[in-house]
Amino acid sequence: MREKERKIPRTIHAAAHSSRHRVRQKERRVLAEVAGILEPVGLQEEAELQARVLEEFVKNSRKKDKLLCSQLQVVNFLQNFLAQEDTAQSPDTLVSEDTSRQKASEVKEQWKELKATYQRHVEAIKCGLTQVIPQVEEAQRKYTELQEAYEHLQAKKQEVVKKQEASQKKWELHQKNLQCLAEITAKVKELKARTQQKLDQSNQELENLKQQAEQEQDKLRRNKTYLQLLCTLQKKPLVSEAKAEDMGNALLPESL
């Protein structure tokens, strides 16, 4: 019987160690599934979602680890209790075989409850991942749409920039043409002013010449009249206008 009681703590310890090993393996598989789901995304929005999913998973894992740790502490306590009982009891006060079996059965039931609880937690994590996967896919689809819209806007922006650059070049050319036109206009105005000044001078000279011509014609008429009068007084025939003009010019200084 003592040999059986010694085997019970060893069995519990081995079962606890095996359970912890299986728990770690399942955690690794779940983390690998999460990493496999979120790895193709590789973008900022999906990275944030991945961080939130991992954070929630870590929180749930910590809760389960705490529960598992508390249950393992119970198992450890029972293991230590049985070990102490095995070393402290004398042959006369040994626990009966039925009592040992009852304790072993209780420990086995606790272990089953612990395993069932862990299994429920694993199922809850898988269920949570099943709900998260469509959200990740939807986020990836929205990101693809946003990326396409962003690329479309970038192309539009490039077109607008090119049009703006072309408009800027046209505006600069227009300003240059306006400047050249202003310079030409200024030169034309200056030339027009000079031409107008020369024209005014020419008009003034022409007016002076007209006045001189009128004076000469008036003088010629007076000479002609004087010559006719002179011929009449002297009873001489009239001469031609050319001769009269020559004679008038010759006689005019004497008469004056």
Key terms:
4 helices; coiled coil; Zwint-1; disordered N terminus; Zwint protein; single chain; mainly alpha
Query: How many strands appear in the DSSP assignment?
Result: 0
Largest sheet: none
Which residue ranges are poorly predicted, with pLDDT under 50 across at least 5 consecutive positions?
1-9, 251-256
**Overall tally of domains:** 2
Terminal-residue CA separation: 185 Å
Radius of gyration: 64 Å
Structural class: mainly alpha
Question: Which range does the strand content fall in?
Answer: under 5%
Q: Please, what is the average pLDDT?
A: 74
Quick one: overall form? rod-shaped
Helix content range: over 70%
Q: Number of helical segments? A: 4
User: What is the N-to-C order of secondary-structure elements (H for helix, E for strand)?
Assistant: HHHH
Structure explained in plain terms:
Pfam families: Zwint. Residues 136-230 form a coiled coil. It comes from Phodopus roborovskii. Helix content is 92%, strand content 0%. It folds into two domains: 2-170; 216-255, no CATH class. It has helices spanning 2-38, 44-88, 97-234, 241-255. Helix 1 packs parallel to helix 3 (97-234) and helix 2 (44-88) runs antiparallel to helix 3 (97-234). Residues 1-9 and 251-256 have low confidence and may be disordered. It contains four helices and no strands. With 256 residues, the chain is mostly helical.
